[in-house]
Structures are given as C-alpha cells and as structure tokens.
Write a structure and sequence with these properties.
alpha+beta, 9 strands, elongated, 2 domains
C-alpha cells in the first residue's frame, strides 16, 4: 500500500481550512484501491473504505475516519488534472524499458460528462498510449472551444518519445506536429486522408501507380478469427525526394500504405486502403506492425475503459471531476496490466474484490524488483 501512497506524493492539495479534514494521499489511495477492487463511483470509494477500514489503518492514519462520497466528489472537482497526472507519470517511470517503440496518440470523449445547464460539452481527452505494453503514459484535457491539434504539443511535453515512433490519425498530420515529434528525438507515422489535399493525392497516386523506377517494399500478413479472414499488405517507399520538393514536410523519410482485404463468414468482402507519411525508413514488415499497434489503443484502452470500467456511463460533471477520475481509472488499469496474471482486466478486478491477497499482489507490481 505504501507504493500507492508514494505515487501521489507530488499531488498538490487544493483544499483550504476546514475542508482539509482528510489527508490527500490517503484519500486518493482509497479511491484508487477501490477501483482496483471493481469500484466505479465515489459512493463505491466510501463503501470500500468503510468495509476495509481496519486493514487500511495498518498503512494510514485516517484521523477523521473514512472520507464520505461527498468528500471524494468535492476533492476530484477541485483537483488539477495536470497535477494529479504526476502520479500517472511516476507510475510508469520504472517501466520505461518495457514500453516498446510505438506511442499511439488518440482522443476520447467522456460522453456523460456534459452539463446542459452550464452549456458544457463532454470532457475530451487526448492520450498517449504505449501500445505494446498497453499502458497509458499521459493525457491532457482538450480545450472545449478547440480540438486535439493544439493539445498534442502539450501531451508531447509529458512523454519521452526519444527513440520511439509516435502514431496518430489524419487530424494530426500537421507540419507543426511532425516538427515537434522530431525535435524531441522521436519518429512519426501519421495517417493521411483526403482533407490533406494534394499531399494525400500525391502519396496515393505514387503508391497506387508507381513509376517504373520506384523501389517499393511490401509485406503481407493474414489473420483469421472472429468470423473473418483479413489479409493486410503493407507497402513502403523510401524515395521521397520528389515529395519533399513539393511539400517540404519536416523529417519526412518515407511514405506507405496498408491495404486490408476482409472476407466475412457470410461471404461479404471489403477492401480498405490507408496512406501514411513517416520520418523513419521502416522496412515493410515493421511499418505494418507499427500501424497495427496504433489501433491497439481502441481495443486495449478505450474498449476496456468503457466495457470493463463503465467510463462512458460515468456521470461526473462538476469542476474537474470527470478528468481527474479518468486519471484514476487509467492508474488502476495500468496497475492491473503490470501484474503478470493472464486473466482479463475485468476478472482481475473481480478477483481483487474477492481476494485481498491478489489486490496486494497487484499493488506490489507497481515497483519492479530487478
């Protein structure tokens, strides 16, 4: 438990005076541990604390007892999400060498966090995700009056991308984004769509109808399962001098495309082709793996948060509560992923709820023992 308490040591307490009845680190630790045991709401946090108060007192002072659900709710509404995120960053420090090379960037809306009376739209987050380790590295709140593009530089300031490949969808295929990634010692693999105008057109035309002198590298992979067969062909070209002359894109070293041919058990077939710009001269097989790793953020993060942790149904709306509780969820998910047990995330949470020894095992995995 002390490992969890130490994770929150740099979080600043926004409360003043009589409102500061409960220790901040202890309150946040109860909130996180309750989520590891399957809790979802501030009421669950209070209930967990009251049931396990004798055990919690072995590690905490709790001079004023267990915080009420209102206390948890007020605290998360007042906390600075950026400050709370220091815990998320601290948690992954010891795991830096296990994060893999692909950092996927993608946005996610907390759908029930809107406020009609205040005319406030749902909280929108931009996240950095270590696709191979399946760990959330950082997140920033997107300005409600803006979009994800200006939020990405702030996210990059929180993540060490040196020697890694940052992947993002077509919204982030911007010169400023590419320059920022390269400046931090990373590489990029950015998707293109038709809204990139002549850049998308030039890349698609060259790769779909290459000149005789073009040197294209290609790799195929066939996957079967879930009632379908999918053949993915990754094609990459390192000759981009002609493209640089026309577009002068920061760090551009290669272009590529991935064509997915799917056949369902029903007999239905489809073909989808996506185009990319890259700052690293990847081989075709590695390029295909990089693109595939990016989409892991949907299945390994967004799907798990919504299905196993009910994030889409969370109705926290006051102040910063939606964004702060999103950080705590990702902390809980990271801790569950650090445990080597092969159970699904949902089964790990249920097992931790039923067996306290397993909960303690998950917490101990926060710090790696070399």
């Amino acid at each position: 438990m002390r490992e969890i308490l130490s994770v929150f040591q740099d979080v600043e307490d926004p409360r003043r005076g009589n409102a500061k009845r409960h220790d901040l680190q202890e309150t946040l630790t109860i909130a996180l541990v309750s989520m590891l045991a399957g809790g979802r709401t501030c009421v669950d946090m209070e209930d967990y604390g009251r049931v396990w108060e004798p055990w919690l007192r072995e590690f905490m002072t709790l001079p004023n007892g267990i915080p009420s659900h209102d206390t948890f709710s007020r605290l998360f509404g007042m906390l600075d999400p950026a400050g709370l995120q220091t815990a998320l960053l601290r948690l992954t420090q010891d795991w830096a060498d296990r994060l893999g090379e692909v950092v996927a960037v993608d946005g996610k809306a907390l759908r029930r966090s809107f406020e009609d009376a205040a005319e406030r739209s749902p909280t929108h987050l931009l996240q950095a995700f270590a696709s191979e380790a399946k760990l959330t590295l950082a997140q920033v709140v997107v300005d409600g009056k803006s979009n994800e593009i200006p939020a990405l530089p702030a996210l990059l300031e929180l993540v060490d991308v040196s020697g890694r490949i940052v992947t993002a969808d077509a919204m982030h295929a911007q010169r400023g984004t590419a320059a920022a990634i390269v400046a931090k010692g990373g590489d990029y693999a950015l998707a293109l769509k038709r809204n990139q105008g002549t850049l998308h057109e030039d890349v698609a035309t060259y790769l779909d109808n290459p000149p005789a002198s073009a040197e294209l590298l290609s790799h195929q992979r066939v996957d079967k399962g879930h009632g379908r067969v999918e053949k993915r062909t990754a094609t990459v070209c390192h000759d981009v001098d002609w493209l640089l002359e026309r577009h002068d894109w920061p760090g551009l070293s290669a272009i590529g495309k991935v064509t997915a041919e799917r056949r369902l058990a029903s007999g239905a077939e489809s073909v989808d082709t996506r185009y990319y710009i890259l700052s690293a001269k990847l081989e075709a097989e590695r390029f295909g793996r990089t693109v595939r790793a990016h989409w892991g953020i949907e299945n390994s993060l967004h799907w798990v948060l919504d299905v196993s942790m009910d994030e889409d149904r969370a109705r926290n709306r006051k102040g910063n509560s939606a964004a702060c509780l999103a950080v705590v969820r990702r902390l809980a998910l990271n801790i569950a992923r650090m445990h080597p047990d092969k159970r699904s995330i949902r089964r790990k949470f249920i097992h931790a709820q039923r067996k306290q020894e397993f909960l303690v095992e998950m917490i101990r995995c926060v710090r790696r023992l070399e």
